[in-house]
């Protein structure tokens, strides 16, 4: 059967309740079982260890783009989600999209406003949500979807996670006050920035449980693993996660590529490129999905920091995850990854959706050899997927932050600076380049200071949004526990829903 066989004619009818295709998902490792959206929503890995992807990408034509161009962000989100979700009634899905993408939560009516920096170079702000980083874009929707699906099933969930900053706070702000959900978030005691601690620990919602572990981030992660590996405990206490491999998170992120395209162009035949600061390959994987749907994207420029696992792959065809010891602590910390957990999704598409070959690389070669190299022919195919890549160092970040301020009077954060640096290496005349702004500079004040030290100074002061001013002075709610999985389990038992 052709993978296209189940598509609606225009990729459009779904949201009107006609010609609804069966939105089905398969695993990147070859398990042929197809699953519905609601089945995979609350899950992590597929049962064969792979990642879920739609059985086919719905195609969007010029007429559909024309219809979508004038839509509000929430309505655009509804249209795109509708193509991938057929087991939530359209009226409910529309309500969830509108409850998520509001000016009150994201600060502007455009939700992800695009600003021109200079001729041909644009910045799309994904960082105006509650935690000032792009993870809010997806996590806020996930909060709505989880609450909806759990209520529908009459179930509840205890989300357990470990964080050194961004992901944990995005999850807490998305799940706070949600019925049927408790969040237990472990963080290394005293090791997050004062602002990050204040952001998380000041939440007073009864369903949010901050646990400061006497140890480092790896200890927190080990405890999460230990608890999750206790299958009896996991089942009994309905332990779940909100990690970056969740398909719904990726799907939510597809929307802002469309929103960015509409803002940077006037017609639906123009092409644009995106530059994307990358860590776990989640953000840019959503760009890949948008491009597969037919959004006119010329290049997807992947930007890494000194942790250049992905840049190395795109340049050489070799994927070589790093050890903890080889992973650098950088001034763009949310991109300090040793392996890219969403990367398997792209490789599956690159290999012509060959599940057996993807499995051989990701479950066999990785375990046996610590990495793999794709063939020359496979590497040559990367260009047809639009991907290019580059790397940025601490010195590059400082120069980019300073230069962008001097040229355009726009202050960017360290992650966005990585994206801007690589964007400039891939500019093409006549093709607007949109850099995704993934965090606000207020979160990285020390590096901003450093960028303007000496004759370039004084440093501009990053603006702190009104909602977060004075946050350090608020009362805090958190427990301190030793790095001991048994004690964390006992804590969950006494607090869980
Ligand atoms: C998570 C994060 C990234 C990287 O996104 P991935 O989806 O992991 O590629 C970049 N910048 C910031 C600020 C982030 O929080």
Describe this entry's structure for a reader.
This protein has 497 residues and is α/β, with parallel strands linked by helices. The chain contains 20 helices and 15 strands. The chain has helices at residues 37-41, 62-69, 73-82, 90-100, 103-106, 135-153, 166-175, 194-201, 217-229, 231-236, 247-264, 282-292, 309-316, 343-350, 355-369, 376-380, 394-408, 414-425, 445-451, 485-495, and strands at 25-27, 52-54, 114-118, 121-125, 157-162, 181-188, 208-214, 239-240, 272-277, 297-304, 318-319, 372-373, 387-391, 433-437, 479-482. It has a six-stranded mixed beta sheet, sandwiched between helices. Strand 3 and strand 4 form a beta hairpin. Helix 3 (73-82) crosses helix 11 (247-264), helix 6 (135-153) crosses helix 11 and helix 17 packs across helix 18 (414-425). Mean pLDDT is 92; it is low at 1-20. Residues 133-135, 166, 244, 277-283, 334-335, 415, 438-439 line the site of pyridoxal-5'-phosphate.
């Amino acid at each position: 059967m052709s993978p296209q066989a189940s598509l609606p004619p225009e990729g459009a009818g779904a949201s009107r309740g006609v010609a609804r295709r069966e939105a089905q998902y398969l695993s990147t490792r070859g398990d042929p079982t197809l699953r519905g959206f609601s089945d995979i929503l609350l899950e992590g890995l597929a049962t064969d260890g792979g990642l879920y992807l739609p059985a086919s990408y719905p195609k969007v034509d010029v007429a559909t783009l024309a219809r979508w161009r004038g839509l509000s962000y929430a309505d655009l989100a509804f249209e795109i989600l509708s193509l991938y979700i057929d087991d939530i009634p359209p009226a409910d899905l529309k309500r969830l999209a509108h409850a998520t993408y509001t000016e009150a939560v994201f600060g502007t009516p455009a939700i992800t406003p695009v600003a021109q920096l200079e001729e041909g170079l644009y910045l799309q702000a994904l960082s105006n949500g509650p935690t000032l980083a792009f993870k809010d874009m997806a996590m806020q929707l996930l909060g709505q979807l989880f609450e909806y699906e759990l209520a529908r099933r009459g179930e509840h969930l205890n989300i357990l996670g470990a964080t050194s900053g961004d992901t944990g706070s995005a999850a807490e702000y998305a799940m706070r006050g949600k019925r049927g959900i408790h969040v237990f978030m472990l963080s290394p005691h005293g090791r997050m920035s004062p602002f990050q601690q204040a952001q998380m620990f000041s939440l007073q919602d009864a369903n949010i449980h901050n646990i400061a572990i006497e140890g480092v981030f790896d200890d927190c992660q080990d405890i999460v693993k230990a608890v999750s590996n206790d299958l009896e405990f996991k089942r009994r206490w309905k332990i779940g996660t909100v990690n970056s491999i969740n398909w719904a998170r990726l799907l939510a992120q597809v929307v802002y590529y469309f929103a960015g395209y509409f803002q940077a162009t006037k017609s639906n035949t123009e092409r644009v490129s995106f530059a994307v600061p990358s860590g776990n390959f989640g953000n840019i994987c959503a760009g890949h999905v948008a491009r597969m749907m037919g959004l006119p994207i010329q290049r997807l420029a992947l930007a890494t920091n000194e942790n250049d696992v992905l840049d190395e792959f795109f340049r050489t065809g070799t994927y070589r995850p790093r050890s903890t010891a080889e992973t650098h602590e950088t001034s763009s910390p949310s991109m300090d990854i040793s392996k890219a957990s969403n990367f398997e999704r792209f490789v599956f598409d690159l290999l012509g959706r060959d599940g057996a070959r993807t499995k051989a690389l990701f479950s066999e070669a990785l375990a046996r050899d610590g990495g793999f190299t794709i063939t020359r022919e496979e590497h040559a195919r990367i260009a047809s997927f639009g991907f290019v890549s580059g790397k940025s160092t601490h010195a590059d970040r400082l120069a980019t932050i300073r230069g962008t301020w001097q040229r355009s009077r726009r202050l960017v954060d360290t992650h966005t600076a990585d994206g801007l640096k690589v964007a400039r290496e891939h500019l093409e005349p006549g093709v607007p380049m949109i850099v995704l702004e993934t965090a606000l500079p207020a979160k990285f004040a020390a590096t901003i200071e450093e960028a303007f030290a000496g004759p370039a100074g004084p440093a501009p002061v990053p603006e702190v949004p009104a909602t977060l001013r004075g946050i350090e002075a608020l009362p805090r709610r958190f427990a301190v526990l030793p790095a001991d999985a048994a004690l964390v389990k006992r804590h969950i038992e006494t607090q869980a829903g």
